[in-house]
Amino acid sequence: MIDPNTETLIRLADAAKSLPCRRAGKKPHVSCVYRWTTSGCRGVVLEAIQVGGTRCTSKEALARFFRRLTRGDAADVPAVRSVAQRQRAAERAMRELDAAGI
């Protein structure tokens, strides 16, 4: 979690500008960095906070994000199940409860 008192806050646009070039020598677009804060990348989500009307992250949060991506810490993030998967799991649990007489 970002601590605004001890970490260096930066706007997502500035974070995108500070990153190294990717494919074809282009820097990541700010929308890419925004997606990292909402959907994540390979199961790892970039920490962000809202400062007034501006979404921000920190240099330290970027370092943690890249470190987790490098180590492959996506296993720490619970998998997102589809609606159908949740329904099947609920039905399976109901059958198990019925079989147990509960």
Which ranges are low-confidence, i.e. pLDDT below 50, for 5 or more consecutive residues? none
Radius of gyration: 19 Å
Our count of helices gives 4
Order of helices and strands: EHHEEHH
Q: What does the main sheet amount to?
A: 3 strands, antiparallel
Biggest sheet strand order reads: 1-3-2
Number of strands: 3
Estimated structural class: mainly alpha
Summed over residues and divided by their number, the pLDDT gives a mean of 90
Shape: elongated
Q: Give the amount of beta strand, in percent.
A: 5-15%
**Helical percentage:** 40-55%
Distance between the termini: 41 Å
Give structural notes.
It is a single chain. This protein has 102 residues and is mostly helical. The protein has a domain at 9-77. Helix content is 46%, strand content 11%. The chain is built from four helices and three strands. The chain has a three-stranded antiparallel sheet. Helix 1 (12-18) packs across helix 2. The chain is elongated, with a radius of gyration of 19 Å. It starts with 8 loop residues before the first strand and ends with a helix. The model has no long low-confidence stretch (mean pLDDT 90).
